[in-house]
Amino acid sequence: MIVGHSYSQDSIPVAVNQQEEKLLSFQEHFFEALAQKAILKFAVAIEHLEKCNELKPNSVSVLFELSKNYGLLNKMIEAVSYAKQALKMEPNNRWVLEHLFEIYLSEKNNKAAIELLEIIAQSNPGRNEQLVLLYFENNQAKKGKELLMSLQEKQLLTPNLKKLLSFSKEKQTTPKTSVVEVKSLSSLLKAFKGSQSFESLQKILSLSEKEDAAIFLAYAKKGVELFPAQSFVYLAYAKALNKEKSYKKSLETLQNGIDFVIDDTNLEADFYLEMSFSYEGLGNKEAALAMKNKSLALRTIK
């Protein structure tokens, strides 16, 4: 009994020391990973995070950082995988949900992005505006209208959503022939010739981006000439130029137009994302990753 008691007491400090050493090693690798990410050495950061994962498996913080670093290396399969692992541990982790949402959005996986945004909006009603717009942009008008009506009942409509609701009601009360005319690109072009209003131009660019690349390019360029203080037209023109593989000119347009972005983090993030496409087209992968990182960071802090 005395020997057994003595052995038990001796083993406690050993176990405590091992745990302390393990924790200290974990912290050293984790903070080194953050330091390496800060200087854009994402692959080195991943090596340290993998050590953390060995020392303390299933840490949400580690899995989140692994996802972010793989995303910055444009390795989206790994980025998505680690984000999903983190969400298994903490399904309602706001930061991981937002991060994975932005990955899906940047990869144009709109279906998955909408599913995540539906979850995010449950605890953050401010995200409902983006959710409504995504519904309408992805042929889910019924869901978009239902959410609009729900937000109206709760008096949570933003100014933009009020305009959208008003426009939606106008469409419902307008005869079908008139709706077709309003939607057609040719009728919008005719209307613009008479008014040359910014609102008409926005409609032309929104429609022509999907339907007619030549018109999109021509009217985006015209928009920069007619409305040189509107950031929207610079972004549209840059998108058109990127599609034409005029990457250098697109980048110059974005750099000029971003000065006119005021208090709109979404739009600023769109500019940086488009810059990443321009840099990628020019073969500058490091700058492309840096711009994508800026875009993701802006969306994360909302």
Automatic annotation (TrEMBL):
It comes from the Bacteria. It holds the Pfam family TPR_19. PROSITE patterns: TPR. InterPro entries: TPR-like_helical_dom_sf, TPR_rpt. Keywords: TPR repeat. SUPFAM superfamilies: TPR-like. TPR repeats lie at residues 60-93. This is Tetratricopeptide repeat-containing protein. The lineage of its organism: Bacteria, Pseudomonadati, Bacteroidota, Flavobacteriia, Flavobacteriales.
